[in-house]
Every structure is written in C-alpha cells, then in structure tokens.
Design brief:
Chains A, B: InterPro entries: Aminotransferase_I/II_large, Class-I_PLP-dep_aminotransf, PyrdxlP-dep_Trfase, PyrdxlP-dep_Trfase_major, PyrdxlP-dep_Trfase_small. Chains A, B: It comes from Bifidobacterium amazonense. Chains A, B: This is PLP-dependent aminotransferase family protein. The structure is a homodimer of 407-residue chains. Chain A is α/β, with parallel strands linked by helices. Chain A folds into two domains: 136 residues, Aspartate Aminotransferase, domain 1, CATH 3.90.1150; 239 residues, Type I PLP-dependent aspartate aminotransferase-like (Major domain) (Aspartate Aminotransferase, domain 2), CATH 3.40.640.10. Helix content of chain A is 39%, strand content 14%. Chain A has 13 helices and 14 strands. In chain A, the strands form three sheets. In chain A, strands 2-9-8-7-6-3-4-5 form an eight-stranded mixed beta sheet, sandwiched between helices. The interface between A and B is large, with 91 and 90 residues.
Chain lengths: 407, 407
Amino acid sequence: MSGGVPVRAGYSQIAGHLGGPAFLPLRRDAADGAAKPLIDLTGGVPDEGVLPYRSYDDATHAVLTDAGTAFKSVSYIPPAGIGRLREQVARWRGVSVDNVLITDGAMNGIFLAAQAMIDPGDRVLVETPTFPFALRIFRRLGAQVDTLALRRGGADLDGLERQLRGGARYKAFYTIPDFQNLTGEVTDGAHKRRLLELADRYGFAVIADDPYCDLWFGDDEPAGFPQGYRQADDYSPLYEIGTFSKTLGPGWRVGWVIASADAVRRLAAIRLCVDGNGSAIGQYAISRLLEDPVWFDDLLDAERRLYRGRARTLTTALHDTFGGSVLFDEPQGGFFLWARLPRGIAVDDVRVQDALARQNVLVTRGDSFYPDRPDASYVRMGFSAIGDDRLREGVHRLGDALLPLLR
Amino acid sequence: MSGGVPVRAGYSQIAGHLGGPAFLPLRRDAADGAAKPLIDLTGGVPDEGVLPYRSYDDATHAVLTDAGTAFKSVSYIPPAGIGRLREQVARWRGVSVDNVLITDGAMNGIFLAAQAMIDPGDRVLVETPTFPFALRIFRRLGAQVDTLALRRGGADLDGLERQLRGGARYKAFYTIPDFQNLTGEVTDGAHKRRLLELADRYGFAVIADDPYCDLWFGDDEPAGFPQGYRQADDYSPLYEIGTFSKTLGPGWRVGWVIASADAVRRLAAIRLCVDGNGSAIGQYAISRLLEDPVWFDDLLDAERRLYRGRARTLTTALHDTFGGSVLFDEPQGGFFLWARLPRGIAVDDVRVQDALARQNVLVTRGDSFYPDRPDASYVRMGFSAIGDDRLREGVHRLGDALLPLLR
C-alpha cells in the first residue's frame, strides 16, 4: 500500500447496510448442538429423489455433442432467452413467443419486473404475509411498501378498492397467487379477474409470482388470469413470473416472465445491464428436455403425487399430535403448510424457541413475513424434501416441545 | 379487459428509455442483402473449433451422475458461489477464498460492483475509448460519467492526478487493464500501482474489468495489480473482475469478482436481490474441469497460440493491403485489433459506410466507444472467431472498399 492512511471509497446506500437472513429459523444455533439429528422443515426445494438426473445428463450430452447446438450452448444468447425455449414456454402457457422472457429463475424475474416499474419513492403494495426476498428487492429500489391482508381466496380486494377510491395510488401490487409460499393460499379466478380490473381502472401493475402453480394436489390446476390480459402486444398490467426451479431444480436458474411484448422488450434491455444474458447451457438443456412433452407431463404428475402424499403425512401427523389445537388448511399444492400454533404459544417467546431447539426441529417463524405488524402465532413447515418417517418424527418432536407448554 | 380505457401503470425511468445497440456495425442492413457471403469482424467470442465440448460433456456427466453432486448441481447454492470453485479461483489468482465472489460472467461482476458503490449523482470516471455496456450500467444507476484518455501503457494518470489535486472527486474509476477490448492496450505494472495509490490517496474505487488477461501472445502474462491490494479483509479500493467467458465460453455464465472480503460479503447480499444465486450446473461443471489444472493450462496454451496466429494473419493482411496508411499496434493478447483508418476516411461518412456494405464486410465503428467526443477515424476488428482465409478475404474487401476513396 502507499504511505499514509488510505482514504476509503464509500459504498452505495444499498451496500452500506447488509440485510440479515430473511427467513428466521427458530434458534438454529442452539439446535445445531443438540443430540438428536436435525429435522429441518424450513426448506423450499424439490425432493432429491424425484429429480431425473439421468434425463438431465442425456440432455446436456445431446446439446454438447450435437454440432448444431454445441457451440451455441456455451455462447452468448439473446437477453430475452433462446428462441426455442421461449416458443416452448409460450405454447405451454398459452401466449405468444413475444410475451415470454426467459430469466435466471423467479427471483430474477421479480428483480427485472421491479426494475422496469419502480423508481425511488414509488409506492408498492404487497399481500401479507409475503415473501421477504421480494420485499427486499422493492425496498432496495427505494419503494415505499404498503400491505394488504391475504384472506381466503385472495387478497382483500374490498379493502384495496376502498383505498383506491379514497385516492391511494400504487405503482405495483405484488402477489403470490397460487399455493402461496407461506400460507398455501390460492387466489381464485374471480379474485384474479377483479384484481386486473382494478389495475386497469387505477393504473397499477400486478406482479404475479407463481413458482408453484404447476404443483397442484387436486384434480385441476388453479384458475389462471384472464386470457385477455396475457397476450398483449402494447400494454397489460400483468407480469406473470414462473420458474422451472420447483419442478426441474433451482440450480438450472431458468424461469420466465410473461408480460406484454412491449414490457418484454424493456426487460430484455434492462437485462443487458445486469448480466447480459442467462445461462445458455441451462436454457439449451431444458429446451431439449421439453421437446418430449410426455416426459415432462409424467414428471409433473410424479411430483404432484409425491408432494400430495407428503402433505397428507404432515397433516395427519399434526392432527394426531395436536388434535384441534394447531389450526391449518390442508395444502392444495406447493411445498408448504402454514399453521397457527396453539393459543398461548408464540414464536417470539424464548421458552418456545428453547423447547424447539432442545428437540432439534427447525420450522420457519411466521412473524418474519409481515413487514408491518408481525404475527408470532404462525409457523411455516416445508414438506417437499422430507420423507414421510421424518415428517412424522418432526411433528412428534413439535408435540414434545410445545404440548408441555400448554399445561 | 374491463370496460373503459385502461389507465396504464408507468414504467420506471430506467425502462422508459430503451437504449439502442451499443455496438454499431457499419450498415448491417445494407450488407445483409449483398451478394458475397458476409464476413463479420465485429464479434468478441471464442473460436468455435477450439472449445473442448467433449470435456464439457464429461464434466456435466460426472456432476450429474455422482451421488455427491447430482442434487447439489441443480439446487440452490450460496450467492457468493459454490465453495470449491471459489477455492479454485482463489488459488489460481493468488488470493484467499474470502476475496472471491463467483458471478454470472464479467458483465454481472461489473453490475454487482457498480451496485455496491454507485448512488444517483455519484461521479464515475472511465477511460476512453471504453466498453459501452459498462457505461450503460453506470448511467442506469444514475452516475455522472467523466472520461480520461487511454494512452500507451495505461490511462492518463498525470491528467487524473492534476484533476484530483484540483479538487475533483470520483466514486469509482472503470478500466479494462489488459488487452482492452477496443484498443488492445495493456496497462503496465507501474500504471497499475500508481492508479491504486491515487485511489488510496483520494478515496475512489477501481473497477478493473479483465476478461482477456489470460490470453497473452508474448512470453509472459501482463503485470498484475500489486498483491498488497488483492487480499484485503476489511478494505481495498480494487475490484478485479474476471470471467471464463473468453476461455471456456460465455454460455456458462461463470465469472468472478476479486475484492476485499468485506466487499465480497456486500456483493453477495446484493446478489440475493438480483437472482438469488448463479447457475449451479455451470459452477459445478467448471469446478470439475478445473480439478485437472494441466488440462486447463493446455487449453489456455492452445487458445493463446490460435489467437496469436490469427492476430498475425490480420496484421500481415493489413500491411499487405494498406501499407502504412492504416495505423495499428500489433495485438499483444485478447480478441481485437484497433485500427486508425487512412487519413480522410471516417466511419461516420456515408460513402465509407456504403462502400463497406457493398463489400459485405462488417467492422465495429470506433466512434461508439467515446461517451463524449466521438472519434470516427477508428474501427475495431475482432479476429478470434474468424479463420485465416476469411480474415485475409475480409481485409481484401476492406481494401476494395476503402482504397478507391483515397484516390
């Protein structure tokens, strides 16, 4: 170094304050030292056993040995993604290829959509509970974040309409419409339509973050957004964000945004200044896999069966252990169960945290998902990557930890 | 849609004005219709024939079939990158693992570094000519961009020091120190040291964008930045940005930032709000490839030989065709040759553009790389991905297009 004390270049405001972890497991520190092997119910990843690694290997092999794709699969690609994958996603989702931008997963889609609409000082509305990483994106862009309660069937649109009539204005509303990654709630078709009609009337965008919509447990997929909003050329308030992360694995970093063709062009231009373009090898491999739609349908079916079974194991175990003292809705899809703890038990209570740590079982604190008024009476349990026996054992430990506190 | 004319949600300021293409080929539109097959000297990609697809296939196969990595390679990974690849890059580059953040290529490294330091209104200095995509990143973050002339051996640091003594202050200086992707210029060791001493004395950061430093044509690699600045824990002004894009292919989207451990932590936190993390499959595959350092050294040697030969073919052809009327420095590394056109020939002259279009040869206009005072007397020629015969043919066509204009 040169002589003298260096004058330091400053960080930006964003880099100046590092965020803590957005998901707060209950006393992981204490749990790590416990005697029993850990049961971790905080994850949101696909099951290790269900993913088809052999097919993945076949796909990368085909792409890297085919003279038509080998060089392309390790080259620069367009910022909106490779054409064939955009076509495949467009056909699957029932829109035009110009409405599809391929992203590096759903988080990247939220980031790009937020970049396209938020300036410092803009107001953004989020349903609560909400996904803390999305909240961070909005806040780092300088947005002021307001909240709207998520109810059965969707966000409180009566409340929203009252606000809007009273003069409140928002740049965007952020929602996780299907099998929400906290509550498991599904926004029904009527709510989806009404939300977009309000968006049209009052001029806000709708960011619909939808990573779980393909993983339904019933007979039918959830109702979609009205088709009239999904194939716009010039303008639509709707930005639908999807991903292969929950079905093919997050390590591919391949997702998409479906929006108006005009918005897709803008997101692609923004992307040039973020990382230029996405992973060519990942996009070519996934495109190769999707050339066999039967294979993909069969995989989705197998995943739905697996996760439905695990959800049932978890709910049965919760009934058996807690009777009616833990309240929850049976998950209809996705990876998570959202449970209200017995009256008098709260996740911000150090007695509760200590009891769970002694049992070495991790759940996600519900109070981390409310930006304004934390509700400490909920926990989230992820069942996707945990086998049936360990799910039962996990609930057994929850009972051993919490039931004595009720006496 | 709902009744009535929809009120449109606005775009952000960033998305409101789309940038045009940053690289301006000479009349691509006219050229596309010409009779001769196109010779495109605008690219900056590795040669198709030199990349080892079989090794890539072996690596993805190994990763996807090894029980220890299959699931991990399609899962979420830490935002700073997988530990093993960070270790490998750290050892290769002679720093500690805590100083390494894995990125999605160099562009993503510039973006993350810029996010970490630039707030709206900050002043950023760039050498000219400079890389337009980096310029876009700084401007989109609201920076005010000033320029410093690039000279033989590095930027004009005498001029910079006079400015700084006179009270000018910058948040960051952006430079491409080795085989600059426009001029091919190398910043020598003395310039590198002095730049960092100025950074320490006047409190600015140095963003050193270095994608070509491994592709030298002489006996030795270019001088590095002083080691004392490269392994800081708490603070260093230096952010070194590297990538495997030019050596293993940009489609992997794997690069790195080397910075202080504190800065690496901040960049990782920022990354959580951009795309969460990078491509696991890409990082695991490249890490597997790097386990054989002899293989990687041999590949780099083969690439250096190939590109050195092409640079010589191009310079010989230019001498043969133009004699001394086209001025350039023999490239010492990298992918590009920067040439001053014969006196009286300028790329913003429509006669010149028409003549090149008729020959169906594309070069990159030099005036697109000056943010303030465009200099239309230069063109850039990329030789990395064009075979010797076509390089000669390309120069022949340049002669046919330009020499008649001299008479």
